[in-house]
Amino acid sequence: MQLCVLQPGSRQPAQSFPDFAGQPDARLHPPLGYHGLAACTGGSFHRSDETIPAEHNRVLLVLGSNLKACRQAAVNLRRAGKTIVLAWEKPGAFEIQAQLDSPSALALFREICVRSHAALAVTPDLEPVFRAGGILHVETIPVPLPVDAPAWDFSVRPEERVGIWLGTWDWKNPARRHLTALMGIRDIASQMYEPVTVFNLDGWRGRRWLRQLGFGQGLLRVIERRLPYTEYLQKMATHRLVFQLDATGGVGSVAGDALLCRIPCVGGNGNAERILFPDLCSQNTSAVDLLYGVSRLLDHGHDRDQAVDRALQIARERLSFDIIQQSLEQLFHYFG
Question: What secondary structure letter does DSSP report for 222?
Answer without folding.
Answer: E
